[in-house]
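Data availability (excerpt). The following record was deposited with the supplementary files.
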Amino acid sequence: MLPGVESGAWQLKGTIEGLREAKLDRAIRVIEWGVRPFGSLSNLTDYQSNQQRAKNIADLIGEYRGHYPDGPVTLIGYSGGGGLAVWVAESLPEDLMLD
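Predicted structure:
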């Protein structure tokens, strides 16, 4: 899960609670990204850093998949984290599919 441009895990607290209440039986990881605190503008406009962050997160997903080859991987991005999630998906190897 990738929070919005303020990049705080607190932004996804309600989402995580809702997933747990729905009996989702999966590991949930929030990846805070960008400049904190007060990094909204730079987190929205620093294309080069965001592309590198996306590659790094894609590498983390690849590493996870290496340990759990049959485990599902769902990528959720909130607000500005949604844009980063798209870049992460684009950075994944072609044979690594998301749910």
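Summary of structural features: The mean pLDDT is 94.
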